[in-house]
Structure formats: structure tokens, C-alpha cells
Amino acid sequence: MQDNLQVNMDEFLPLRDVVFNTLRRAILTGELKPGERLMEIHLANRLGVSRTPIREAIRKLELEGLVTMIPRRGAEVAQITEKSLQDVLEVRRALDALSVELACDRISPEALNALGEACDAFAAATKTNDTKKMAEADVALHDIIVQAADNGRLSSLVNNLSEQMYRYRFEYLKDAGAHGQLIEEHRIIYESIRKQDKKTAAETAKLHIDNQEKSIMKQLRMEKNKSV
Questions:
Q1: How many CA atoms lie within 13 A of 228 on its CB side?
Q2: Which of 61, 132, 140, 144 is 20 to 30 A off residue 108, Cα-Cα?
Q3: 68 pairs with which residues across the strands?
Q4: Contacts of 224 (CB under 8 A, 6+ apart)
Q5: How confident is the model at residue 64 (pLDDT cuts 50, 70, 90)?
Q6: CB atoms within 10 A of CB 11
Q7: 26 burial class (0-12, 13-18, 19+ CB within 10 angstroms)?
Q8: Looking at residues 177-201, what average pLDDT do you find?
Q9: Which residues of 84-120 are buried (b: 16+ CB within 10 A; e: fewer)?
Q10: Which letter does DSSP use for residue 197 in this model?
Q11: Rounded-to-integer distance, Cα 194 and Cα 114, Å
């Protein structure tokens, strides 16, 4: 476990929620590695809390698919497997294509302007070499598109995948060689929505996910070969 793992206290949240948010953020950003054991006593000591909020947080993380319970071993950070990656991205691919198609018809001038600014913000974030900052900028950009689609059901489905997507997005953004391609794909999606070009917007949104899958799959296979 990383030594810099610590609770960020929020006076407006119950302790159990603060602990949950702390552990979730550590998993999503890779501070807690896939396969790493989550031992209640150790975590409680590290975070300066009792075992009860740790236990509650682990239970919630299991429901989100970020933690796996292993017989006779206990809780572990869920592995990023090829199958789990494919399952999530197949669904997100379809949802993102639908989002941009709907946004072509429904986006407001204000939201379109915000999307353009979000594209610039992401490009600027890639120059910082701060993966967390890049991930947050990418999330903000895609959130604008989903909101512009103005479909509550679609928004709910995207939100249900948000934690897993953030984790995959974080892994993808570690590949500095992909940043230029991401910036270009964002630009094409923005221009397509501005021109109400649904075909190009949907095709680029799908390509956006396909490239993410290829990059992370390559990383997974490289890690697998190292461990053999």
C-alpha cells in the first residue's frame, strides 16, 4: 500500500463515507493496486479509524465492482481483466455513440461553447503530466456531452459505469503516446456535434472507445507477460 494514503476529512460527511471515498479514490487512481489485499486492521491503522467504517467501505466497494472477496483471503482490489474491460467498454461504446447523436440535435449554444472549452482544457491538462488532472478534464468533457443529450435514462446508465470507466480512463491516460490522438478525437467529436454531423460524431465516439480498449489490453498483456 502507498504510504501517502490518507483520509481527507470532510466535516459534512459521516466518517464511513469519508473512508469509502478515500479507498475508492485510491483504487481508481492506482494507489491501491489490482490484486492488493485490503486488510481491515492494516487499513484502520493507516487511516486512523476503527475497523467498522473500513468494513462498511469494503462492502460498498464490492457492490461497485472495485473490490472482490476471495475465499480464505478476504477482500482484494478487483483485477482489471480483459473480460471485464471488454464488457464495460462494449456498453460504454454504444452509450457514447448514442450520446453524441442526441447531442447533435439537442445541445444548447452554451453547452456547445462549454464543450469547446473542455476540449481546450483537456489539451492543456496533457501538458501537466498529471494523470489525475487529465482524467478529471476528460470526465468533465464527456459529462457535457451526456448532459447535452438530455435523456435521464441514458445519463443513469452512463453514471452506473462511471467508476469502472474512470479506472480504465486513468490507465489509458498513463500512455503519453495516446494524448495527441485523444485531443484530435475530442476535436472531431466537438466539430461533428457543432455541425450536427451524427454519422461522424458516432463513428468517432466509437473509435474513441476502441482505441482505449486496444491500449489498455496491450498494457494488460504486457503485465501478464512480465508475471510469467
A1: 6
A2: 132
A3: 76
A4: none
A5: confident
A6: 5
A7: buried
A8: 97
A9: ebeebbebbbebbbbbbbbbbeebeeebbebbbebbe
A10: -
A11: 12
Which residue is listed with cell 466539430?
A: 191
CB-based burial of residue 32 (10 Å sphere; 0-12 exposed, 13-18 middle, 19+ buried)? buried
Task: Please state, in angstroms and rounded to a whole number, the distance separating the CA atoms of residues 126 and 115.
Answer: 17
- As given in the structure block, the three cell numbers for residue 91 are 456498453
CA–CA dist 182, 185 (Å, integer): 5
Q: Which triple of cell numbers denotes residue 129?
A: 503530466
More confident residue, 119 or 171: 119
pTM over 0.90: no
* Cell numbers found for residue 30: 492506482
All three cell numbers of 116, joined, read: 469547446
Distance CA 162, CA 119 (A): 20
pLDDT in tens, 101-136: 999 999 999 999 999 999 999 999 999 989 999 999
